[in-house]
Amino acid sequence: MKNAGRSLLAVLRARGWLRGLGRIGDAELLALVIGEPAARCGVSLAQELVERYGGLEELEGAGLEELAALRGIGRAGALRLVASFELGRRSLLARRERLIRKVSCPEDVADLMIPDMKGLDREHFKAILLNTKNGILKIVTVAVGSLNAALVHPREIFKAAVVASAAGIIVVHNHPTGNPEPSREDVDLTARFARCGELMGIDLVDHIIVGDNGFVSMRERGLVTP
To answer: How many CA atoms, within 13 angstroms, populate the side-chain half-sphere of residue 7?
Structure first.
């Protein structure tokens, strides 16, 4: 059985070289990432993962400890899987950053950030640092919180802006529930960010909350004034 698994994996590798990875299915791609675990056939394990989680998007949301606990994967296999998803995520974000070099509306921010932030099981606060023409200078993560909250202070937000000599800033954070509707704390934080930005001469252009498939712009809600 083990030799058969290795034979199947060898066939997949040959197919990948000859035909390209774009024509290989999800389970087969996973098998190539997993390789040849000592305990099981990598091909059957990959198929089991796809069936267990229902697809790659759901599998991507699994944590290291959860994956490592599955029979046949272990810590090394879990790290390979999570690393492969992280590489894909970073590649997608870099590509989107190149395409969206200037922020002209909240939809631009949503298009850029939702793929990067949806499905996260912690609140992440990010700052999009802008020049005087709303061009993107840099995107930085300023805080990562617990399951339902991120402890963020305006000094972390604006420190990054000062270092980059930014003229403006867009604060973006996610709701792990997937619902982007702002809480009372979100409204209060937005007011604090705006006050700090006014004192420092750095415009708070917007505070955007993203969910799994939607977003809320605090400026559009009238909570960030021009």
So the answer is: 4
Q: CATH says 101-217 is which class? A: alpha beta
pTM of the model: 0.61
- The domain locations on the chain are 2-92, 101-217
Distance (Å, rounded) from C-alpha 168 to C-alpha 206?
Answer: 9
Put the strands of the sheet holding 168-174 in their side by side order: 136-144, 124-130, 168-174, 203-210, 215-217
- What would the pLDDT profile of 160-206 be if each residue is shown by its tens digit? 899 989 999 999 999 988 899 999 999 999 999 999 999 999 999 99
27-46 core/surface letters (b: 16 or more CB in 10 A; e: else):
bbbbbbebeebeebbbbbbb
Give 23-72 pLDDT, tens digit per residue.
778 888 888 887 765 445 667 788 888 888 888 878 887 888 888 888 87
Coil, strand or helix: which one is 144? strand
Helix/strand/coil for 76: helix
- Which residues make Cβ contacts (< 8 Å) with residue 58, sequence separation at least 6? none
| CATH code matching the domain that covers 2-92, chosen among 3.50.30.10, 3.90.1010.10, 1.10.3470.10, 1.10.150.20 | 1.10.150.20
Name the token pair of 85: 């998803």
Cα–Cα distance measured from residue 135 to residue 138, given in angstroms and rounded to the nearest whole number: 9
